[in-house]
Amino acid sequence: MAALAATVIPDRPIGSGVPYVAMIPGEGLWGSAADSMFAGERHMIVVLQVANAAMFVPLGLFAYAAARVPSPTGIVLGCVVLSVAIEAVQLVMNAGRVVDVDDVVFNAAGAVVGCLLASAAWMATGGGAGRDVRRHAARGHPLRSWLSQLRD
User: Fold this and answer.
1) Which residues share a beta bridge with 21?
2) How far is 143 from 58, CA to CA, in rounded Å?
3) d(CA 132, CA 129)
4) Helix segments in 31-129, DSSP class H
């Protein structure tokens, strides 16, 4: 929800912006537009792209942890679809947001990092906590077993 709020809430009234779509990957960081930037502007773009990646790390991590059979490829593709949808909403709203393919690239990179972190945690715990959860769930709720003992 925080990612959606940070990326979709308009900066200006809807329909009042000048639509701009940056379709060349890396153009803002290394392309001809970057040549005329001050160092502070380039630094700000790097910070924004790192924030774009960081915003999707928890999404990749939690999606991996929540899946019965985690598929990093499916999770990253789902995050890419979400990122493209966010950019499409920004374009349609036309409210001061720049639609940039770099946002999608860095969001996907964040999802990959999240999946890698979750996968490492999964392997470090010997297949995750799912096995323990299933074992305890099979026993039933502790209050229920205590009540059943009282009845016996």
Assistant:
1) 99
2) 34
3) 5
4) 32-35, 39-66, 72-93, 101-124
Residue 44 CB neighbour total at 10 angstroms:
12
Can you give the C-alpha Rg of the chain in angstroms?
22
Contact 57, 116 (CB under 8 A): no
Q: Outline where DSSP puts E strands in the chain.
A: 21-22, 99-100
Cα gap 117→121, rounded to integer Å: 6
Taking only the tens place, the pLDDT of each residue in 91-127 is 888 877 778 899 999 999 999 999 999 999 888 887 6
- Mind giving me the DSSP string for 11-27? SSSTT-S---EE-STTH
Are 114 and 107 contacting, i.e. CB atoms less than 8 angstroms apart?
no
Residue with tokens 């490492």: 120
Integer angstrom CA distances of residue 28 from 44, 60, 106: 11, 25, 13
Query: What's the predicted TM-score (pTM) here?
Result: 0.73
